[in-house]
Design goal:
GO molecular function, one term: DNA binding
CATH superfamily of the largest domain: PAS domain
Number of helices: 10
Number of domains: 2
Strand content: 15-25%
Keywords: DNA-binding, Transcription, Transcription regulation
Structural class: alpha+beta
InterPro entries: Sig_transdc_resp-reg_C-effctor (IPR016032), Tscrpt_reg_LuxR_C (IPR000792), WH-like_DNA-bd_sf (IPR036388)
Domain HTH luxR-type: 197-262
CATH class of the largest domain: Alpha Beta
Number of strands: 7
Radius of gyration: 18 Å
Helix content: 25-40%
Protein name: Regulatory protein, luxR family
């Protein structure tokens, strides 16, 4: 039965308890509205302004496949990790509690939206990871469920980790659940909002958020015009509005604020 479905691993990790608390996220009969995009398309569309790597998780046993070679250099690893536990062990111990709660928050938001959209919802948040320098640096984490079997069991998810230490060293503790493809969801979930923390009292439109993400990837207005099939004038107008709304004067400042405020 669906409510009895659980996953396990030879190398146990703390997220197993979180996942197993929500069996419907692991196995459900909801049919996806559209076919999920390829891993290549997913990677190309996700934010990665800095050194990054990705990997796919086999959800039933937490083994890893399709690991990007950057993972070895960034974390000074001698061989590719085989289990998710090895990735989690690189996270700063003080951030593990937040990571577990962030996972709970994203699963609960997915449940609220509807499991039929499970493969069209991207989740992101930040935490510190041990690097080849022997120090912990800030990373931006993105995840997406990418495949289910015919019975509805979740088979794989893809994770992307980007080193953003050069952009910000402060964790906003904002968890973002955003739609991809046909979905326009944009949900900012706040974890233990810090005393005195000021969040922006304005919102960007879906198109502005889309352009912001492309600016963060380093694309010029001309390139964004081609990607979105919009006129150059339209893109520059949106860009000007984004800078005015965020009170920014340059792209690097814009990207930092976007991360700090949980926009990307």
């Amino acid at each position: 039965m669906e409510n009895q479905y659980k996953v396990s691993s030879k190398r146990e990790h703390p997220l197993l308890d979180v996942w197993n608390d929500y069996p419907q996220s692991l196995s459900n009969n909801a049919k996806s509205i559209t076919s999920p995009p390829s891993i290549e398309k997913i990677i190309g569309d996700m934010f990665a302004m800095g050194e990054f790597y990705y990997y796919a998780i086999n959800i039933p046993d937490s083994t890893l496949v399709n690991l990007h070679p950057n993972i070895l250099k960034i974390h000074n690893l001698k061989k590719y990790p085989k289990y998710l536990k090895e990735i989690i062990d690189l996270i700063h111990p003080d951030d593990i509690e937040f990571v577990m709660e962030a996972e709970r928050m994203t699963i609960e938001k997915m449940s609220e939206i509807g499991w039929e959209h499970q493969q069209s919802l991207k989740c992101s948040y930040c935490f510190r990871m041990l690097t080849s320098k022997g120090t912990y640096e800030m990373f931006h984490h993105q995840s997406l469920h990418i495949s289910k079997d015919k019975s509805g069991a979740l088979l794989q998810a893809v994770n992307i980790h980007t080193n953003i230490q050069h952009i910000t060293q402060t964790n906003s503790y904002i968890v973002l659940v955003a739609g991809i493809g046909y979905r326009d969801d944009f949900h900012q979930l706040h974890y233990n909002k810090k005393p005195g923390q000021k969040l922006p009292d304005y919102s960007l439109t879906k198109r502005e958020l889309e352009i912001l993400s492309l600016l963060a990837l380093g694309h010029s207005a001309k390139q964004i015009s081609g990607i979105l099939d919009l006129s150059y004038h339209t893109i520059t107008t949106h860009r000007r509005n984004i800078f005015q709304k965020t009170d920014c004067t340059k792209t690097s400042e814009l990207v930092k604020k976007a991360i700090d405020w949980g926009f990307i």
